[in-house]
């Protein structure tokens, strides 16, 4: 009988120990899980704080920019006067007449006169050019060599009728300052030097190369003075290697353009 009682007590104790260990294990797992969640949330909170700090700095910077722009806008605010717009400062200047007393003349300070002059001249339109041309190459130039003139055959714009599509030459009809440019697309595996000529003088030179995998084009620009009768044209170099073709199709076309900027 005593032996049975002892066995029952031992079994009960074993069950309690096993259950206790199981409960401890589950609690430990839950605690570790909660710790991981808290650690992850800590990282998120840190990142959010960093973002907020960065945004605060950006807000301050943008506020300063807006303040400066508002100040500039207020200083340059335009007042409508019929069809014209005159700034407040220039309008005030116009309301202040010169006062003459005998040989003595009261006038505005030099600084105010200069400022008013700038304001009054700000809205004067620039006179448009009376000479301009823009032409394209629609037919590929095959096996070009050195000293080869490039004739752009399609005329898009020819104000003043100064470009000849049969020769590829632009002839100035007026003295002036001109902008001259072209864009050239070499065919695959082609490479060559190309120049802009003013009469017999080279005014711009480039080297374009399409031996690589990417399609390419080259565009120089020159600003030159021309007298009536001066000629401008595009020709391949006489000094550098010239090999291959100039590419042209309905989607990609080389071009040549020029326009008068100002009188001289």
TrEMBL record:
Subcellular location as annotated: Secreted
Entry keyword Secreted: yes
GO cellular component: extracellular region
Pfam families (alphabetical): C1q
Main location group: secreted
Family matches, as PROSITE patterns: C1Q (PS50871)
Matches recorded under InterPro entries: C1q_dom, Cerebellin_Synaptic_Org, Tumour_necrosis_fac-like_dom
Keywords carried by this UniProt record: Secreted, Signal
Keyword Signal appears in the UniProt entry: yes
Transmembrane segments: none
Domain of life per record: Eukaryota
Residues covered by the C1q domain: 126-264
Signal peptide annotation: 1-20
Name of this protein: C1QL
Organism listed in the record: Mytilus coruscus
Phylogenetic lineage: Eukaryota, Metazoa, Spiralia, Lophotrochozoa, Mollusca
């Amino acid at each position: 009988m005593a032996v049975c009682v002892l066995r029952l007590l031992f079994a009960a104790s074993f069950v309690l120990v096993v259950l206790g260990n199981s409960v401890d294990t589950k609690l430990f797992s839950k605690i570790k899980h909660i710790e991981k969640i808290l650690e992850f949330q800590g990282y998120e909170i840190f990142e959010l704080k960093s973002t907020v700090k960065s945004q605060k700095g950006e807000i301050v910077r943008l506020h300063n920019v807006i303040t400066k722009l508002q100040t500039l806008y207020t200083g340059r605010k335009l007042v409508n006067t019929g069809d014209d717009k005159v700034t407040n400062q220039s309008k005030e200047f116009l309301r202040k007449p010169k006062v003459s007393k005998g040989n003595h003349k009261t006038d505005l300070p030099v600084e105010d006169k200069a400022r008013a002059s700038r304001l009054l001249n700000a809205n004067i339109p620039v006179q448009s050019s009376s000479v301009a041309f823009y032409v394209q190459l629609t037919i590929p130039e095959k096996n070009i060599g050195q000293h080869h003139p490039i004739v752009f055959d399609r005329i898009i714009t020819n104000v003043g009728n100064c470009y000849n599509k049969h020769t590829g030459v632009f002839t100035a009809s007026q003295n002036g300052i001109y902008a001259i440019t072209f864009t050239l697309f070499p065919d695959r595996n082609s490479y060559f030097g190309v120049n802009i000529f003013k009469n017999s003088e080279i005014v711009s030179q480039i080297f374009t190369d399409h031996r690589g995998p990417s399609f390419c084009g080259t565009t120089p620009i020159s600003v030159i003075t021309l007298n009536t009768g001066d000629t401008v044209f595009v020709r391949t170099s006489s000094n550098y290697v010239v090999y291959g073709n100039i590419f042209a199709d309905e989607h990609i076309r080389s071009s040549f353009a020029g326009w008068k900027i100002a009188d001289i």
